[in-house]
Amino acid sequence: MALRELRYFGDPVLKTVSDPVTRFDKSTEALVTDLLDTVDAPGRAGLAAPQIGVNLRVFSYDVGSLKGYVINPEIVELSEETHEITEGCLSVPELWFPTVRAKHAVVKGVDLRNEPIVVEGDDVLAQCLQHETDHLDGLLYLDRLTQDRKKKALREARGKDWFWSRR
């Protein structure tokens, strides 16, 4: 079991668009294993490769009874119906803010054999799929907040010991 160290808000890797996976080899398998092991800790629902310092389009999820991963994910469907749901992030610990997300999401990608897979879900799983795909596009949930909430979040983040630029 390999629990990887997390990267925190302020680290440039979190604002970088991730590269697609083009090699399906032992290193990709090790990355997926690390993502699954690291997301398995209590209180975690999803983890994208940039959050452990790897600039590749891969994420893992662990929501309810569903656990898995997606390589090269792309959101292919979002419901028009949205809701405001409290959201947090492993890379922005201790900060939770209401965020508008689609209630239903569908992600297409591939598995370790480069075979197509589809993951779809409602509510918390839909939120997770959107959140993790955002990470791969260089976005944090903070980028989706209203202007007032984002100002508050940035102010609070800068005061935290984990904030990357304070290291």
Q: What does this protein structure show overall?
A:
The structure is a single chain. By secondary structure, this protein is α+β, with helices and mostly antiparallel strands. The radius of gyration is 15 Å and the shape is globular. 32% of the residues are buried. Helix content is 24%, strand content 33%. The protein has helices spanning 26-39, 123-136, 147-158, and strands at 46-48, 58-63, 66-78, 82-89, 92-102, 104-110, 116-122. The chain has a single domain (12-160), classed as Alpha-Beta Complex (Peptide Deformylase), CATH 3.90.45.10. The two termini are 27 Å apart. The strands form 2 sheets. A 5-stranded antiparallel sheet has the order 1-2-3-6-7. A two-stranded antiparallel sheet has the order 4-5.
What is the strand and helix layout of this fold?
Elements: H1 26-39, E1 46-48, E2 58-63, E3 66-78, E4 82-89, E5 92-102, E6 104-110, E7 116-122, H2 123-136, H3 147-158
Antiparallel strand pairs: 1-2, 2-3, 3-6, 4-5, 6-7
Cofactor: Fe(2+)
Active site: 132
Keywords: Hydrolase, Iron, Metal-binding, Protein biosynthesis
What keywords describe this structure?
peptide deformylase activity; Peptide Deformylase; Peptide_deformylase; single chain; globular; alpha+beta; metal-binding; five-stranded antiparallel β-sheet; 33% strand; 167 residues; iron; two-stranded antiparallel sheet; 7 strands
Gyration radius, to the nearest Å?
15 Å
Euclidean distance between termini CA atoms: 27 Å
Order of helices and strands: HEEEEEEEHH
SS field, number of helical segments: 3
Output the CATH class name.
Alpha Beta
